[in-house]
Every structure is written in structure tokens, then in C-alpha cells.
Request: fold
Amino acid sequence: MGETTKKTINTIKRGFSLILEILFPSKCLGCRKGGQILCENCIDGLRLAERPTEEKIMALYDYRDPLIKKAIWKLKYYHSPYLGRKLGELLYSSFLEEIQSLRMFSAGSPIYIVPVPISNDKRKVRGYNQSEIIAKGFCNFADTNLFTIKKDIIYKKANTVPQARIENRNKRLKNIKGAFEIKDAEQIMGKTIIIIDDVTTTGGTLGEMIKLL
Reply:
């Protein structure tokens, strides 16, 4: 399939999703109640992340929660970017205390929000980067000028095996090692940065980006 054909298909998919959203407003992914993609009752019932994470890495929900797993899968594989925006809003609302601490630390400068990049091949197939969609929802829910999305700081230079397909922790860490590169190191000097990803398990991807930054 040629690049032009892929772009055309993705454009059609995005247009079709928009038309569906207009004609048939969102229903809750959990209870199917109309009006919201995730209703408050279902959000309140989501399982919060309890497993310990690596230093400087925080998770909001437990991926073993059936509704969270369903939401992430629809976002990544069934062209549902509006789910990403909702997840970004929830992420922001749940980490307000930590965000305020970073706001003081950044001394008034915008906090850089860096979504975990995906390969060009995946972006062509999917039509968007799911972590970038979550990051946009996260930023849109905040005060004006608090955040600046920086999707051009780091790029993924290698097409790695998807982390979800690798069960062994050491193999996951080895798989992602050296997969990212900084485009312009000068632009991050002295900046406060939040990295956003859709799923973290071993923390390998986020840890690799933290070390690189």
C-alpha cells in the first residue's frame, strides 16, 4: 500500500469518526449511557494503579481494569481519539498536587509536555500518536500558558517490537534501549518536563526517555 493511499484512508477514517460523533453523540464506553464517552459513575469505579513504579514515573489507572484496557485498545487500534482527550483530562485532574509542585519548580516558565513518540510507520497506519492525543487533552484542561506541548524534542529512531508483546522485563528494557534520539538538546536546558505515555508496565520506555533528557 502506497503512502498516498494510506494518507487517504486515514483521512476518510477521521472524517467518518467525526460524522459518527455528530450523528450519534458519544455513549459511555462502560455503561452505554448517552452524552459522555466515559460517565462519572464508570470513572469512579475505575481501578487506580497500586503497583509500585520506577522513580519519577507515576500511573493513574491499573491497566488490568477491563474498562481501562478497553479504552486504551479503542484509542490505539479503533480510531477513537476522543477517548484520548478524555483520558488526558482525567490525568490532569488526578495529578493537580504534583502539577502545582512542578509549577513552583519551573519558576513561571511553561512546563514542557513531551508525548512518547511512535514510529513513522505506526503513525501512518493509525493516523495519530495516541500519547500525543492524551497530552493534548491534558494541556487543554489546564490554565493558559501553563504547558507547552513539545512533540519535536525526541523522535523514535528505531522500529522496536511493541513492548506489550514482550513478557520478560529484562527483554523489554533491552528492546527499548537506544530507541530514541534528541533532535535539539539546547531547547530543553533548564526546562521542567512531563513525559506522557498511554501505558507503562516495567517503566522501560519512560525510563529510557528520562535518561535521554
Remarks:
- The first helix runs from residue 3 to 23.
- The chain is about 45% helix and 10% strand.
- The radius of gyration is 18 Å.
